[in-house]
Amino acid sequence: xxxxxxxxxxxxxxxxxxxxxxxxxxxxxxxxxxxxxxxxxxxxxxxxxxxxxxxxxxxxxxxxxxxxxxxxxxxxxxxxxxxxxxxxxxxxxxxxxxxxxxxxxxxxxxxxxxxxxxxxxxxxxxxxxxxxxxxxxxxxxxxxxxxxxxxxxxxxxxxxxxxxxxxxxxxxxxxxxxxxxxxxxxxxxxxxxxxxxxxxxxxxxxxxxxxxxxxxxxxxxxxxxxxxxxxxxxxxxxxxxxxxxxx
Length: 247
What we know:
By secondary structure, this protein is α+β, with helices and mostly antiparallel strands. The protein is built from four helices and ten strands; from the N terminus they run ααββββαβαβββββ. The chain has one domain (2-49, 58-244): Extracellular Endonuclease, subunit A (Extracellular Endonuclease, Chain A, 3-Layer(aba) Sandwich), CATH 3.40.570.10. Helix content is 21%, strand content 21%. The two termini are 26 Å apart.
């Protein structure tokens, strides 16, 4: 009975977040870590992002939660262009898991060669064919924290995590595409941060927080948490193994 009450309260809180955003005064990263990462429930969804519309012009699917009303939390010093374009990846932790990735994105960082196949096995990468439940047929992708099209970082262990197909495409890719198109068109810069969110010593992240803000103007500004889930699949985040719901 108590578990049922807790789950109900959690769902009510989540619905309020989807409608009104994260409560004012709660720092987005702390909120994600303390609440979303420890939640007991899982959303089932049908991914639906209209690639013809800007992210600000459409309702985001339930897999994506807005943080701080979808406004990035960068400080004035974070937005400084004194160092030009750059990128930084956290060292792998004791479990070989990735950490936060930061960048000041610019056109000079974008790759000019074809991407090579990925070979690194991120933690929890126990992939399986799930048929029509994924557009690629597979449950997992090797997800770049900072997309290859943005900086050319490819087979870097510090930039790859185990993510569901829906997390990678279309969810993360939509934000990456919009940022890439903006940079190519304007030659301006975008401050960018992707934070994988792990619970305790689990090997698969529960989701990622993505933040982006254009520096020279106000065109790009987002702050979202994307859940690492796949429709009709139950994931054991401790190991990366999964069970398909065929009901």
